[in-house]
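Write out the 3D structure for:
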Amino acid sequence: MAGGKQAGLALALATRNDASRKKLAAQANAEGRFAPANMGAPAAPASGEQAGRRRTGLRPPLKWAGGKRWIVPYLEELWRPHRHRRLVEPMCGGLSVALALKPARALLNDINPHLINFYDYLKAGLTVSIEMVNRRDVYYRYRDRFNELIATGQADGAEAALLFYYLNRTGYNGLCRFNQKGRFNVPFGRYKRIAYVNDFTAYRAAFAAWEFTARDFAQVGLKPGDFVYADPPYDVEFTSYAKEGFHWKDQVRAAQWLADHPGPVVLSNQATERIWKLYKALGFSLRRLSAPRMISCTGDRTPAQEVLAVKNL
């Protein structure tokens, strides 16, 4: 008899929970937010390290401003029914999403050629041949050498890849910033201890079936069935991620390019009023999320409002 009561209680709770989910979905649609049938209400986002290590056991090799490890639980629900597709990231950044979703096939692009050079060498097998030490004098010596390689057209080699890694891990707040001449100008960081990677072997296996390119997003060779995840630079004043910059006209150009893709599209960006209006007008379904500020120039860690937009899902 007790077992029957417990079964009845479990059924009642399940029915009530299902009704609650349907109510939340209806509210989301009424408010202009999306709630795909297969998405439900994801668990609280995992910590950055947990999300980055999910499934592959690998964390992203670089520190990356605006990294998307926190958003992985939301993306996993959208990706799961489409995991047979090729994943395309036109602005792949720190690779937290690709490493977590672990697609069998991927095209990973970024406008930053130094970032892609580093990934290409990880895929080929990168051997550490420079001293990795958290010292100001070493940092500026390596930064000068890196900029020398850029100035002399030699920034596509293994030395440049290693220097890029060192500068990223040792520089201020993990920023990647270049001046108008294309020179890296991030100052020395303030870390007490840094856990440098001295063996990149595991990344070689993880990247084996992935293709890396360095070009403008509009030149990425999309196929109709590709699953696209895009994370454009934030709609903020800072636009020096690459020497070309990324301005409002580029935000509009990216939005229109993504809207034209016939396959599944998911993107995230800062939820400014004009970003919201831009993607809403192009037929995307939108949802607001609170994002942790993992890296900030001012040290501010106040949760930022981001938009998660989807189309053709």
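The radius of gyration is 21 Å.
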